[in-house]
Amino acid sequence: MNMGIGITILGRRSFLLAATKAIGLFVLYPTTMTVTEWINPMAMAAFFVKPKEKWTADHFSDFLHALPASAMLTLKKSLGILDPEAREDQLHGSDQDARDIQKHALWLSSNVLSYLFRNKTKINYHDLVTWVSEKSGVSANTINAAPTFVLERELIKLLFAQMWDRLDAQQRNDLLVKIDLNGSIKDKTAIVALSGAGVLAALSTTVAFAGFAFYTTMSITIASMAGAVGVTLPFATYASASSIVGVLSGPVGWAIMSITALGGIALAGRANLRKTTLFIGQLHALKIEALIADGVPEQEVF
Containing H/E element for 165? Predict the structure, then answer.
């Protein structure tokens, strides 16, 4: 995918990426476009997604710095740095917000003693995702071979399984009907009786978990869970790719996953696996949103 030209300074790289897109669009549509239509702010971060690489500390930092304020706000809410009702005027600017997110992500994934000796702005993000994957039961072969993007998706599958376990039989059946528009999922009655782990195995080879369709499935699942806890989503949940990723990466998505995700009691001084997993899922959703905003076709997102 062609998402920009590499330059050594982050600010210039982002600026040139944006300028190139704007100029190209203006040449095509010089009389019909306004300045605000040139660039979706999330598209600026697409260059830094690097879905085939294992993310280093620099990958993590670059992506955070490329995010618009709205995405920074969502991340800080998902980490508990800001209250759910917080607004963008409570942000401190890209550099400080990025440092806050890095520091808190490190805190969640460390015990008290190790945290004191770790660099708060140099988090090897792939190592963090690997740690969560190992603790969550992702296969060793996948962990050893997969880039960060793939491991993140495996963890989101586990969040799906946890939400499934919170649904009753009727809600599970309704969900299967919604995600199976072409009738490819057979014997729904048997699947309804499965646990979250079982349903992952049953659906892993179906179209519901293939490619971008997996994110549609997650979006529908979040919408179903939202309805079950009395939350009404304010827009069409899966009418388009942008609305799908809007559910995943927006405040409703992380709030529902946070409410429904299972996990043991967080012990004082210990690394918090559950909250770290939720953060990784939130960051992955923002990566997906950035790719879609940049115009990457759905079939190329995963």
Answer: helix 148-166
pLDDT for residue 278? 86
SS (H, E, C) 236-259: CCCCCHHHHHHHHHCHHHHHHHHH
Length of the chain: 302
Instruction: Supply the mean pLDDT for the chain.
Output: 79
Is residue 271 within 8 Å of 108, Cβ to Cβ? yes
Model-level pTM greater than 0.70?
yes
Give the span between the Cα atoms of 196 and 218, in whole angstroms.
Answer: 14
Contacts by residues 269-276 (CB-CB < 8 Å, ≥ 24 positions apart): 269/111, 269/112, 270/111, 271/108, 271/109, 271/110, 271/111, 272/108, 272/109, 273/132, 273/135, 273/136, 275/79, 275/80, 275/108, 276/105, 276/108, 276/109, 276/128, 276/132
Choose among 147, 152, 156: nearest CA to 50. Answer: 147
Compute and round to an integer the Cα radius of gyration of the chain.
19
Report yes or no: 176 and 192 within 8 Å, Cβ to Cβ.
yes
**Stronger pLDDT, 232 or 85, i.e. the higher one:** 85
CA end-to-end span of the chain: 12
Q: Per residue in 70-91, pLDDT tens?
A: 999 989 988 888 888 889 999 9
CA distance 124 to 1: 25
pLDDT at 21: 41
**Triad 289, 80, 241: Cα angle to 5°:** 15
